[in-house]
Amino acid sequence: MPKIKYKVILSREGRTLLLSLTKNGQRSSRKVIQALILLNADEGELSEQKKRTCKDIADFLQIGERMIERIKKRFVEGGLELALEDKPTEREYKHKIDGDAEAHIIALSCSEAPYLACNYQPKRLVAFLFQPLIL
C-alpha cells in the first residue's frame, strides 16, 4: 500500500503568520514546533529552501516523523488554523476518589495532628489517613 503524501503549500499570509509565531516567544513550545514543521515542509513558490523530507525535518527538530505526517495531513485537510490547534481529548477519565473520600481527607487535614505525629513515617502516615477507607 503506497504511503500517502501530503503536499504543504503556504500562502504569503500563512507564511507570515507562522514566522511571527516562531519569532514572538509568547506561544507554547508545541505551537512553535507545529509552525516550524509547516514552514520546513512548505513546497510552494515562496519557500526559500530546498524541499525537505519528513526524515530531514524530524532530525532537524528532534521529533518523530509520524508527528510531521499528522501536522501535514491536518493542514491539507483542514487548513492552517486546524493544523495549529490540538484537538481535545475524547477519553473519559475515572475519578480516583469519590466525594466521601475527599470529605474524609479534608476533615483529617483540618483536625488536630495525632499523638506523636512527628514520629510517623510517610508510609505509616498515609496508611493512618486512609485507614477508615480500607474495606
TrEMBL record:
Protein name, per record: Helix-turn-helix domain-containing protein
